[in-house]
Amino acid sequence: MKVILNAVQMMAGGIFLLGITGPVAHAAESASGAALTVEATKALSNAEFLVGMAKNKKSLWTTAAGALTQAQEAAKKQDSEAVTRYSAVASEQAFLGLAQSGYPLTGAD
């Protein structure tokens, strides 16, 4: 039941973030006029939220942290495709880490 509650909280937070990050995409424009796509900006915001949540619950997997770092580096280079790809990995790995934290601990028999 705890896993389901965590999943619902993450989905609600992700939906909330996806709804408010639209204007951020326009703010991400650089002097050259290139900007991340709205989808890439939303994916990065969602990944940052989920990784932050996993870190706060002490269930962050290193693969999630690494993928988020790669997504942030790609965002600095305005590479929307890479941002979307790495953000998806970070979100998935953070979600799995949070879900795993809800599993019962098992003892050796």
Task: Note down, in words, how this protein is organized.
The protein has 109 residues and is an all-alpha fold. It has a domain at 37-102. 74% of the residues lie in helices and 0% in strands. It has helices at residues 2-20, 22-27, 38-56, 62-76, 80-101. It starts with a helix and ends in an 8-residue tail after the last helix. Mean pLDDT is 82; it is low at 20-32.
Which descriptors apply to this entry?
109 residues; mainly alpha; 0% strand; single chain
Topology:
Layout: H1 2-20, H2 22-27, H3 38-56, H4 62-76, H5 80-101
Helix/strand structural class: mainly alpha
Categorize the overall geometry.
elongated
Largest sheet: none
Number of strands: 0
> What count of helical segments does DSSP give?
5
Rg over CA atoms, rounded to whole Å, is: 15 Å
Residue share in β-strands: under 5%
Report the helical percentage. over 70%
Low-confidence stretches: 20-32
* Strand/helix succession: HHHHH
**Average pLDDT, all residues:** 82
Q: How far apart lie the N and C ends?
A: 25 Å
Quick synopsis:
The chain has 109 residues and is an all-alpha fold. Helix content is 74%, strand content 0%. It has a domain at 37-102.
